[in-house]
Amino acid sequence: MDKKLIYCDNAATTKVSKKVLDAMLPYFTEEYGNASSIYMLGQSAAKALLKARETVAKAIGAKTHEIFFTSGGSEADNWAIKGMALNGSKSGKKHIITSVFEHHAVLHTCEFLEKQGYEITYLPVDEKGLVNPDDVKNAIRDDTCLVTIMFANNEIGTIQPIKEIGEICKEKKVPFHTDAVQAVGNVEIDVKALNIDMLSLSGHKIHAPKGVGALYVRGGISLPNLIHGGAQEKNKRAGTENLASIVGLAQAITDAVQNIKEKQEKVSKRRDRLIDGILKIQETRLNGDREKRLCGNVNISIRGVEGESLLLMLDMYGILASSGSACTSGSLDPSHVLLSIGLPHETAHGSLRLSISEETTDEDIDYILETIPKVVDRLRSMSPLWERICKNEGITGTI
Ligand SMILES: *Cc1c(COP(=O)(O)O)cnc(C)c1O
């Protein structure tokens, strides 16, 4: 039997596109040389590496020598933050500014540094999931060595005021890093116009393979190594280059950036239809700002249902989504992102994230909108929590 499968978890990872796979394949077979080798096969690899670097740089308005390939977004975040922390400590600057709702690659790195004697300011976000640039301005001190604020949030999709934050950091002469893993390919990015000093990106969120990413480091910033060894990446990041994946990343970023306006228009229409449709169910709320939002992100809290049960039921209907509780880690803690925008624990637990892509069709949206109310109704009919909510608040109990 052909089971229906609608993939709505593109913020978790994406499928490698046909174009990306085709671009990569020769680098596993004929073009397997090491870019550091002197013979032709090696030099051909070196050429492909340079071309990929030029392509990635161009896609974000950077210069070729400002791009360093990494094993993904997490490594790029770690490198930028730990590197600037190390630089800062040399001149007694051990204060870092970030926000409470960053990805764990940033948050856990900051927590690690806190244990090493650094002071971290975790800026709050408002109920719409936005950082206030004035808060950044007010938090900067003489001993601040880095500001790191994400470009777009991975759970609620909110796009931060990066240009304003960049201007403030430039004026105050504090380096500014942004985790743009969710933004690249979805939002137009010009690192120079936005005054970004460092930017992390990842391949597998934009239809390239897992395990490849890049860090942009503005020329003039001297970032110490995180990984020592060979002379790869201008002596800055050791390890034989993952050339096939790097070529894949370059192809993916080219494709993503080429049609960005068209994609935004097309995907956000479908996103809005999803949002409006799901919000018709009573006792639901949209998480994150409605306008300043990634074109593919839907995040809705549904009272009286439990996130995990919802995901399992949707899976039976062939809809693959994600929720606001950290089920993957085996913990029952609700997401720090949903708590940061002021949701009570109970509401955060009943949250649903659908992250659609340009491959999601209108028929898919119809099917999702038919299925979700059925599933919610079913779960609520079995939920003592929903029964209590209805009784206490005089809700009739039907969707
Ligand atoms: C996925 C993601 C990361 C981690 O990237 P990897 O390539 O999986 O290491 C970091 N930050 C954000 C915002 C992400 O969505």
What's the structural blueprint in terms of helices and strands?
Blueprint: E1 6-7, H1 18-24, H2 40-59, E2 67-70, H3 73-90, E3 95-99, H4 104-115, E4 119-123, H5 133-139, E5 144-148, H6 162-172, E6 176-179, E7 198-202, E8 213-217, H7 232-235, H8 243-258, H9 260-278, E9 284-286, E10 297-302, H10 307-316, E11 319-320, E12 322-323, H11 336-340, H12 345-349, E13 351-355, H13 362-381, H14 384-393
Parallel strand pairs: 1-11, 3-4, 3-5, 5-6, 6-7
Antiparallel strand pairs: 2-8, 7-8, 9-10, 10-13, 12-13
Bound molecules: pyridoxal-5'-phosphate.
Pyridoxal-5'-phosphate binds at residues 72-74, 103, 105, 150, 154, 179, 181-182, 202, 204-205, 213.
Bound ligands: pyridoxal-5'-phosphate
Q: Distance between termini?
A: 32 Å
From the spread of the alpha carbons, the general shape counts as globular
Give the strand order of the largest sheet, numbering strands 1, 2, ... along the chain: 2-8-7-6-5-3-4
Report on the architecture of this protein.
- By secondary structure, the chain is α/β, with parallel strands linked by helices.
- It contains 14 helices and 13 strands.
- It has a 7-stranded mixed β-sheet, with helices on both faces. A 4-stranded antiparallel β-sheet has the order 9-10-13-12. It has a two-stranded parallel ribbon with strand order 1-11.
- It is globular and about 75 Å long.
- The mean pLDDT is 95.
- Residues 72-74, 103, 105, 150, 154, 179, 181-182, 202, 204-205, 213 line the site of pyridoxal-5'-phosphate (PLP).
- Pyridoxal-5'-phosphate binds next to α3.
